[in-house]
């Protein structure tokens, strides 16, 4: 097991900036406003020869448990229980606060090793300002400026000393076809649809901060987990996506950008829809975006326990999907109640089934037998009075399933015939709910331009 290094501190001391600097890539959203980070965020990192799991946490604040700040603190305390080393960050520009002193006393009572990080100590006066942190009783403060990349060498040395000698062997990242390679799963949807509640229900723990307030999740939060099949899953909870015209705040723009990045890196996307509100145009936009990115999609129809007329609600959803999401015909819909856990056990089997179809390859022989039958049943139409002669088909790749069709003027096929081929393929090989790509490759006459 790799050691876990947890970054703690009150809001706006630079924890997420330090997290990004140690992870050597921009993962956490950073802004000047306090309280941007609300959920703990994990990333693999290599510090002074050690492979570690680095954890960014929400700001520590004294607050009642039923408030957002209180739930943020509970999440940070949960991270602390799994820590092998704590980086306690203070802001030397603003000086020590009563909160810094209270949380330092809390850490002293724990048995965990703690490194005291005096952040924002750039420039000639920075090191002197950092000395104030001595009074916290957590050892020598390490003066750094995460934003300006100053003092990080000393921090790396201190981490190496705290963790001891690194292991000699290095574990390689599993290959794409390795069964131990985690399935990359993103949970997306509108604000307050229940995405974080669903992630907590899947994990069986209060991993994400939840509540009635919309927009609690601001960043894309990744968690590794094993589902009921024993397979590894890299779950990513994302910020809710509103209509683009309504997004004016810079922080929300960064949140949506993180969501889009998570969606592009995913293999399967779970679109969480509020069953009480039904599937609206924004849900459809998100589903179409996932389809354009070539991701398998499963719909989690959440808050199903609160729906009164279930038959009518199902019928409305079916009508919307048939009329507006034909490119994902047959998409799997799992009614569930994330808050109570009812029906959640049916979600991962649906995800695994969609993932298997998304990875499925059809042999060239099977494909061309289907292709010939499809052409016989419905020959391609003439284009501008000229015949289109389709010769054969291949499947150059899966993830998503992709059909390449070769023939004279194949690229001129009208859109309705392209849809016919895709739908016929989907039906013949039982591939509901996954995007299917059709590539048309014509044969060029070398004398046509002479």
Report what the structure shows.
The protein is an alpha/beta fold and 450 residues long. It folds into three domains: 4-163, Rossmann fold; 183-359, P-loop containing nucleotide triphosphate hydrolases (Rossmann fold, 3-Layer(aba) Sandwich), CATH 3.40.50; 364-442, GMP Synthetase, Chain A, domain 3, CATH 3.30.300.20. The protein is built from twelve helices and 15 strands. The chain has helices at residues 15-23, 68-81, 98-109, 126-130, 152-163, 195-203, 250-265, 281-292, 310-324, 347-359, 364-377, 415-428; strands at residues 4-8, 41-47, 50-56, 85-91, 114-119, 142-143, 183-189, 221-226, 232-237, 268-274, 296-302, 332-335, 389-397, 402-408, 437-442. The strands form three sheets. A six-stranded mixed sheet has the order 2-3-1-4-5-6, sandwiched between helices. The chain has a six-stranded mixed sheet with strand order 8-9-7-10-11-12, sandwiched between helices. It has a three-stranded mixed sheet with strand order 13-14-15. The relative contact order is 0.08.
What would you say about this model in short?
This protein is of the alpha/beta class and 450 residues long. It contains twelve helices and 15 strands.
Distinctive features:
alpha/beta, 6-stranded mixed β-sheet, 3 domains, 12 helices, Rossmann fold, disordered C terminus, 450 residues, GMP Synthetase, Chain A, domain 3
Please specify the SSE layout and strand pairing:
Blueprint: E1 4-8, H1 15-23, E2 41-47, E3 50-56, H2 68-81, E4 85-91, H3 98-109, E5 114-119, H4 126-130, E6 142-143, H5 152-163, E7 183-189, H6 195-203, E8 221-226, E9 232-237, H7 250-265, E10 268-274, H8 281-292, E11 296-302, H9 310-324, E12 332-335, H10 347-359, H11 364-377, E13 389-397, E14 402-408, H12 415-428, E15 437-442
Parallel strand pairs: 1-3, 1-4, 4-5, 5-6, 7-9, 7-10, 10-11, 11-12, 14-15
Antiparallel strand pairs: 2-3, 8-9, 13-14
């Amino acid at each position: 097991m790799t050691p876990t290094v947890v970054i703690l501190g009150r809001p706006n001391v630079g924890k997420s900036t330090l997290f990004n600097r140690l992870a050597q890539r921009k993962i956490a959203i950073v802004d000047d406003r306090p309280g941007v980070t609300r959920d703990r965020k994990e990333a693999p990192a290599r510090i002074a020869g050690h492979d570690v799991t680095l954890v960014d946490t929400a700001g520590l604040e004294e607050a009642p448990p039923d408030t957002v700040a209180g739930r943020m603190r509970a999440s940070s305390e949960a991270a602390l229980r799994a820590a092998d080393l704590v980086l306690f960050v203070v802001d030397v520009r603003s000086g020590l606060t009563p909160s810094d002193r209270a949380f330092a006393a809390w850490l002293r009572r724990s048995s965990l090793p703690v490194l005291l990080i005096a952040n924002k100590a750039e420039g000639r006066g920075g090191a002197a300002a950092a000395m104030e942190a001595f009074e916290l009783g957590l050892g020598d403060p390490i003066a750094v400026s995460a934003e300006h990349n100053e003092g990080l060498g000393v921090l790396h040395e201190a981490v190496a000393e705290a963790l001891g000698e690194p292991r000699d062997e290095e574990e390689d990242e599993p290959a794409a076809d390795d069964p131990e390679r985690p399935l990359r799963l993103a949970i997306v949807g509108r604000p307050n649809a229940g995405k974080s509640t669903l992630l907590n229900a899947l994990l069986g723990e209060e991993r994400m901060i939840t509540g009635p307030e919309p927009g609690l999740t601001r960043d894309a939060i990744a968690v590794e987990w094993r589902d009921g099949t024993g397979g590894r899953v890299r779950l990513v909870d994302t910020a809710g996506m509103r209509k683009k015209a309504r997004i004016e705040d810079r922080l929300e723009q960064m949140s949506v950008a993180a969501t889009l990045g998570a969606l592009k890196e995913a293999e399967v996307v779970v679109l969480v829809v509020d069953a009480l509100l039904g599937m609206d145009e924004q849900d459809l936009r998100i589903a179409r975006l996932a389809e354009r990115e070539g991701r398998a999609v499963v719909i989690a129809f959440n808050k199903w326990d609160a729906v009164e007329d279930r038959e009518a609600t199902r019928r409305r959803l079916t009508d919307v999907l048939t009329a507006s999401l034909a490119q994902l015909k047959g998409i799997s819909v799992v009614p569930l109640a994330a808050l109570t856990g009812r029906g959640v056990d049916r979600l991962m089997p649906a995800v695994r089934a969609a993932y298997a179809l998304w990875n499925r390859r059809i042999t060239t022989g099977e494909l061309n037998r289907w292709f010939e039958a499809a052409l016989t049943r419905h020959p391609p139409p003439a284009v501008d009075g000229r015949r289109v002669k389709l010769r054969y088909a291949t499947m150059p790749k899966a993830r998503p399933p992709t059909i390449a069709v070769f023939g004279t003027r194949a690229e001129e096929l009208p859109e309705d015939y392209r849809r016919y081929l895709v739908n016929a393929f989907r039906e013949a090989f039982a591939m509901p709910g996954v995007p299917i790509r059709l590539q048309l490759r014509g044969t060029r006459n070398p004398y046509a331009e002479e």
